[in-house]
Amino acid sequence: MLKRFALPLVVLYTLLLTIASLVNIGGVPDLGSSFDDKIYHFLAYAVFTLIYFNYLKLTSLNTKALLLSVVIAISYGVFIEILQQLLTKTRILDVYDMLANFFGVVFAMLLVRFRKNLKLK
After folding, report:
1. What's the whole-model pTM score?
2. What is the mean pLDDT of the chain?
3. Is residue 53 classed as helix, strand or coil in its secondary structure?
4. How far lies 84's CA from each of 22, 81, 112, in Å?
5. CA-CA distance, 119 to 117, in Å (whole number)?
6. Range of the domain at 95
7. Is residue 49 in some structural domain?
8. Under 8 Å CB-to-CB from 28, ≥6 apart: which residues?
9. Is the residue at 65 inside a domain?
10. In which region does residue 32 sit, left (phi positive, over 0), alpha (psi from -120 to 50) or beta (all else)?
11. Any alpha helices (H) in 23-94, and if so which ranges?
């Protein structure tokens, strides 16, 4: 990714994820399972982690980019769930959403680690 788009992408994705998490959005495509919401959480936070990792990798925080992106993503996910409980009437704090967020973050972290291991060989 081009360096000049890394920060705007971080800001835009964070803003969109915040809005999508705090407003009542209808018309989300049905995936045909009883846990569609958790799949969306998993994917959203995997992408969130990868976007932050890519940005941090381009900064002076390069050596700790993966750790920082994981900490940021998990913290943000918990923060958003708390805000849903406090600020909205249509959303609630859901531990299972936090777990889905966590597993999305872990998946992204494993993807990054696996990719690094492939490059080393």
Report:
1. 0.88
2. 89
3. helix
4. 6, 5, 30
5. 5
6. 3-22+38-120
7. yes
8. 36, 40
9. yes
10. left
11. 36-57, 65-87
